[in-house]
């Protein structure tokens, strides 16, 4: 019998359906208790009443927190906005109306009438409605622009895209035929004068194209059919043209009168590069020599520079006339002093001679706004653009273009560097200076590009290639407003100089 009594006691302890006397009060019981308490206290103010269902003293609200308003409806624990059909119709109307072309009646109607009609019909002004409202109208892409979506979805400028970028056309502004053009990497067959005349050498003849009038002039032709033109270079004023030939001579022509002034013979091989420095004309030959000619004197040959062992295919005087840069087929880049700064009779001592390039150096360009900066480009075995500081003799930066470099030109309007390429890209590339980040690629030539030259206003670059075409790329036009402000600044500084004098 004792065993049965013990089992009954255990079963009574383990039963779960009995009420828990000392446990936590359920939430609904607490709410009922609090509501009953408040009701009783409201009925009989001034009397203390104890209607607690248990002996535990649980506070009616959490300390430090305000009482939370619970929705009266079941399931109302979140706010769901209610939009009627009229609001959705107005939103649809606003979306469709912005893409419609403006009508004459709408433009003529005054804003007061529109507001009054809107209030009378809808009960409020439609212009104040902001449901799915899009601000601004889609922009129209420029003619010939490829990515219209980029124009449409980039209306709001972010801090990173706040700076405006100009549009550069991927097609040339004009294409000129150049039949019988000699496809030789080492020759310089194109030059643009300050009087807007483009000179091009086609085999044994020189033609001039007036970029203003569009007229073509046949300037000269070699006496022997086997001879050919190797290089061209205009004077700073644009009245005279120097011509280097395959018979080792340098000719000087008066363009206005279409008359040859003189023929200067001093080289022993073809003259593939020319460059002017006021009245001094420098010429580079296949023999590796560089000759200085003073065109005012009867004995024109005044100095000889002998720093290259192979053909001199690149020759450029700096804008300030202090240095002459030369590039050769021996992969050297040399910088020579001017005649007035120590280039004496034994002027074979260069200021700098760099041998970092692994290919022929024909492409040379001086920076117009930094007179001590020189850019050079290597041939097929090198393919690198190098920027040099002439004062320190160091290489500032270097870039592998993955293509043969035949010509370099600085574009001052946007402070950019333009390069012409042969194998394997056969194109023209615009680089931002000094970061040398790619701005644009100008494709269209079907053979290697041989030379580049810049127009007098620096807005257009001309490229000539082995496909016997000359292409004019109008990629550097200046904003008219900026151009006018710049002209005003130049006039004001000139007037100040006049007053000082």
From TrEMBL:
**Which InterPro entries does its entry note?**
Cdc20/Fizzy (IPR033010), WD40/YVTN_repeat-like_dom_sf (IPR015943), WD40_CDC20-Fz (IPR056150), WD40_repeat_CS (IPR019775), WD40_repeat_dom_sf (IPR036322), WD40_rpt (IPR001680)
The WD repeat units are at 222-263, 305-336, 379-398, 442-474
Q: What GO terms fall under cellular component here?
A: anaphase-promoting complex
Give yes or no: UniProt keyword Metal-binding.
Answer: no
Gene Ontology terms: biological process: anaphase-promoting complex-dependent catabolic process; cell division; positive regulation of anaphase-promoting complex-dependent catabolic process
User: What superkingdom does the record give?
Assistant: Eukaryota
| Keyword Transcription regulation part of the UniProt annotation | no
Q: Note down the stretches annotated as region Disordered.
A: 31-79
Could you cite one Gene Ontology molecular function of this protein?
anaphase-promoting complex binding
Q: Name the SUPFAM superfamilies for this protein.
A: WD40 repeat-like
Biased-composition ranges, Low complexity, are 47-63
- Residues forming the CDC20/Fizzy WD40 domain are 176-473
Q: Which UniProt keywords apply?
A: Cell cycle, Cell division, Repeat, WD repeat
The family assignment reads: Belongs to the WD repeat CDC20/Fizzy family.
Q: Which PANTHER family match?
A: CELL DIVISION CYCLE 20 CDC20 FIZZY -RELATED, CELL DIVISION CYCLE PROTEIN 20 HOMOLOG
What protein am I looking at?
A: Cell division cycle protein 20-like protein p55CDC
């Amino acid at each position: 019998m004792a065993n049965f009594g013990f089992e009954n006691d255990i079963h009574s302890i383990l039963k779960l359906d009995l009420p828990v006397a000392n446990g936590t009060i359920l939430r609904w019981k607490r709410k009922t208790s609090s509501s009953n308490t408040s009701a009783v206290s409201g009925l009989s103010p001034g009397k203390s009443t104890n209607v607690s269902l248990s002996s535990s003293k649980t506070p009616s609200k959490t300390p430090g927190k305000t009482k939370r308003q619970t929705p009266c409806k079941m399931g109302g624990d979140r706010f769901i906005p209610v939009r009627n059909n009229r609001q959705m119709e107005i939103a649809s109307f606003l979306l469709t109306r912005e893409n419609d072309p403006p009508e004459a009646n709408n433009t003529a109607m005054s804003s007061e009438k529109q507001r009054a009609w809107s209030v009378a019909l809808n009960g409020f002004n439609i212009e104040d409605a902001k449901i799915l409202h899009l601000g601004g109208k889609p922009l129209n892409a420029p003619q010939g622009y490829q990515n219209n979506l980029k124009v449409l979805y980039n209306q709001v400028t972010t801090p990173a895209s706040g700076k405006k970028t100009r549009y550069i056309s991927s097609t040339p502004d004009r294409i000129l035929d150049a039949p019988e053009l000699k496809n030789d990497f080492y020759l310089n067959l194109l030059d643009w004068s300050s009087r807007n005349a483009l000179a091009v050498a086609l085999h044994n003849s020189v033609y001039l194209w007036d970029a203003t009038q569009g007229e073509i002039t046949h300037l000269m032709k070699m006496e022997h059919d086997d001879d050919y033109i190797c290089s061209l270079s205009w004077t700073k004023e644009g009245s005279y043209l120097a011509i280097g030939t395959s018979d080792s001579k340098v000719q000087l022509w008066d363009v206005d009168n279409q008359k040859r002034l003189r023929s200067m013979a001093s080289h022993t091989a073809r003259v593939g590069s020319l460059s002017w420095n006021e009245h001094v004309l420098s010429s580079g030959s296949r023999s590796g020599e560089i000759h200085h000619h003073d065109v005012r004197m009867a004995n024109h040959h005044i100095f000889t520079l002998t720093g290259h062992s192979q053909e001199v295919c690149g020759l450029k005087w700096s804008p300030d006339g202090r240095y002459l840069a030369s590039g050769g087929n021996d992969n050297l880049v040399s910088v020579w002093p001017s005649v007035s700064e120590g280039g004496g009779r034994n002027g074979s001592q260069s200021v700098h001679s760099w041998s970092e390039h692994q290919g022929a150096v024909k492409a040379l360009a001086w920076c117009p706004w930094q007179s001590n900066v020189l850019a050079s480009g290597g041939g097929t075995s090198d393919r690198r653009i190098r920027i040099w500081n002439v004062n320190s003799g160091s290489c500032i930066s270097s870039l592998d273009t993955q293509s043969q470099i035949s010509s370099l030109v600085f574009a001052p309007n946007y402070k950019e560097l333009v390069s012409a390429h042969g194998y394997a890209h056969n194109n023209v590339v615009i680089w931002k200076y000094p970061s040398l980040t790619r701005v644009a690629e100008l494709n269209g030539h079907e053979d290697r590009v041989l030379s580049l030259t810049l127009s007098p206003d620096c807005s257009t670059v001309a490229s000539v290639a082995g496909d016997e075409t000359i292409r004019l790329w109008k990629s550097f036009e200046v904003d008219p407003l900026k151009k006018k402000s710049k002209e005003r600044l130049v006039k004001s500084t000139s007037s100040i100089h006049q007053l000082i004098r």
